[in-house]
Amino acid sequence: MRRPKVKVAVLYNESDPEMYKKTSDTEVMDLEFKTYFEVDKTTPMEEYDYVVAKLKSIGFNAYSLNIKDDINLLLKHLTEEKPDVIFNLIEIYKDNPRLEMNIVGLYELLGIPYTGAPAMGLANCQNKVLAKRLLNSAGIRIPHFFIVYVKSTKYPHRLKYPLLVKPAFEDASVGIENESIVSNGKQLRKRIEHVLKQFNQPALVEEFIEGRELNVAVMGDKRLRVLPISEIDFSQMPDHLHNIVSFQAKWDPHHESYHKTIPLCPAPLPKNIEKRAKELAFRAFKVMGCRDYARVDMRLSKNNKLYVLEVNPNPDITEGAGFMRSAQHAGMTYALALKRIVNYALGRSNNLKSAKSPS
Predict the structure, then answer these.
(1) Which residues in 288-314 are b (16+ Cβ under 10 Å) and which e?
(2) Is the pLDDT of residue 244 over 50?
C-alpha cells in the first residue's frame, strides 16, 4: 500500500498582489549607468509558485496560499486543510515585521511543524538592539553602537565616524540608504531624526566598519552545516555611493547600487579567515536561536577583524541568489535544498505517523 504524499503548505503574505508590475527591458536599458544583472521579470507570487513546483517535482504534495493579511483566512485554512508541514515564508503581517513571530506562534499552538526559525529566534533577530546585546554577551565582536529613542537637541556619543544610522526593528535593509552613512554631528542628527519620524521607532547608530562584506549561510537543525561563504564585491561601486548593501542595492533594479553590489561565491578568503568566519557564523546561529536555515552577515575589517552585523533567520530563498547561491556551491540543487529544509521541520513532528518524506 502506497503511503500518502507529505502535504506541504507554502504560506506567504502579499496583501496587495495586484500592485506588482513586471519590469520591462526598456526601463533598465534607459538607465544612465552600465547594468550588471538581467531584468528580473518574476513577481513574488510567481516565485512562491516556483517553490511549489520544485517541491512537487521531488514528491511532495505542495501548494501555496497567500493569507493577504487575513488571520482568519490563515486559521480557517490550517484547521480545514491540515497540512503535514508548513513552509513558512510569511515575513510581515499588517505592515509590521515584528508580528512575524506571532504567526509561527499560531503554528505552534495548532501543532503543525513549520520550516525556519521558532518565535523566540525571530524575536531575537528582529530586535536589532537585543540581537547586538545577545551577540556581545556571547563574546561575538559587533560594531560599537548606541540607541536613540526620542528626538533631542544633542546626541552625545563616543563612537568613531563614519557611523551607520538605521531603524532598530526593520529587516531586509529597510531604512538603510546611502544617506545612512554619516561623517559628522550635523549629518548624524539629521539622519537620526529622519529615522525617528519616518519609521516611528528607535534609531540604531553604530560604527561603520570599512572592509569586505561576507554572507555566511548556515543550514540544519540538530546538526549544523556552514555553507561556502559569499562576498559582496564593492569594487565597481562609484565614489558617490557608500560600500553598503542598502535597500536600493537589494531591491531596486533601477538604482545604480543594485548593479554595483556583485556577489562572489565562494569568497576568495585566506583559509584561516574562512575558518574563523564559519566558526563565528555557527556560534551566532546558535546564540540567536535560529533553526533550519539562516544567513549571518559580517564585515572583515582592514586589519582582518570579523564583526557580525546581523543574523537573518529565514532569509530569501530565491534560486541562484543569497542563501541558495551558497547551497548551490555546496553541491545542492535548488530542489534538494528545499527538500532538506522541509525535512528538518518534518523531523520535529510527533504527529506524522503514516505520512513519510519522499526518498
Answers:
(1) bbbbbbbbbbbbbeeeeebbbbbbbbb
(2) yes
